[in-house]
Write a structure and sequence with these properties.
Length: about 200
């Protein structure tokens, strides 16, 4: 809900952008949006080829009205320290970093991506490519660290995932999330299986 509210109470961001913003897979975002719609917190309507979302703030706060995520947080209690500890990623109030700060210490989120791949990615994402790339780099490198993949291997993973994005149109984080969903949690070495499925070869975790 707060990811939507960052665009305004009435907005139409793509589900791919919402997924990158929340650090979730597109499938998880679709499930979360379905739950919000079922609860009456979010309503949708078609706007050309896009889907317009509207946050029904009165369903949350009675007669209150808000125009931004900041106002929603303030009206709903404003205790960002408590919200920050909430395990639900949709309630995480931490601001998204600016593109220049999202590259984990590099000058540009595009660093490590082959120039030809970058051009093809921009064709897949004709608008907002820089913001999406910054968000994807941030959540992808965080996910690699959570999986226990060595930092020295991150550049190779990022470069390879960028190449797959250019070829298939699937952003890196979404590619990892989709493969992990198919692997399951009972597999002994999920990283090795993940690397095999992504055609990365043998990797050390």
């Amino acid at each position: 809900m707060l990811a939507l509210a960052d665009y305004g109470v009435s907005c139409y961001p793509s589900q791919a952008k919402l997924a990158a913003k929340c650090g979730m897979s597109v499938r998880a975002v679709q499930t979360a949006l379905g739950a919000l719609r079922a609860a009456g917190i979010v309503t949708t309507e078609s706007k050309g080829k896009a889907l317009r979302y509207r946050i029904e703030i009165r369903r949350i706060c009675g007669s209150c009205y808000a125009e931004s995520a900041y106002e929603i947080r303030r009206i709903c209690g404003g205790d960002t320290q408590n919200l920050r500890r909430d395990p639900n990623p949709l309630l995480n109030p931490l601001p998204n970093p600016a593109p220049a700060d999202a590259g984990e210490g590099v000058g540009s989120a595009w660093d490590g991506i082959d120039p030809d791949d970058a051009r093809r990615i921009r064709r897949w994402v004709p608008t907002g490519a820089d913001d999406l790339m910054a968000a994807q780099r941030r959540v992808t490198l965080r996910k690699l660290a959570e999986l226990g993949i060595r930092v020295s291997d991150h550049a190779r993973w990022w470069r390879h995932l960028g190449n797959r994005w250019a070829e298939t149109g699937t952003p890196p984080y979404d590619a990892i999330a989709a493969e992990l969903d198919g692997i399951g949690t009972e597999v002994r070495d999920r990283v090795a299986v993940l690397a095999f499925r992504l055609k990365l070869g043998r990797v050390a975790a």
